[in-house]
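Morning!

This is the sequence you dropped in the shared folder:
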Amino acid sequence: MLQNDWFMLVIFSFAAFRLTRLLVFDKITRFIRAPFIDEIEVQEDGAFVTYTKIKGQGMQRWFGELLSCYWCTGVWVTALLLLGYYWLPRVTEPLLFLLAIAGVAAVIETIIGKVSDE
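The structure's back. Tokens below.
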């Protein structure tokens, strides 16, 4: 049983990593952040840098603060994945594996990118 626990810890870790990055940083999910955050791109020293400005008050601001914080979003993403796994395992398990595989692929791509830049 312990081996399965470690395996699921790794799966959950990579799945939470990937889903968190998807929500907080990826362009494809900008529409999710748009009601809560203004993303302003400026060019500095030839590179584009994105700054965020939180919108509104109350719940709108709370979600903006959440979606602008990688660590905060990661906690809530992990909680939702865990709840989904315990309440709807048949639905959540394939999603976990998909996200985990994508997370591992992202890590591999980052490592290869760093090594090939040297």
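Headline: The two ends are 42 Å apart (CA to CA).

More detail when I'm at my desk.
O.
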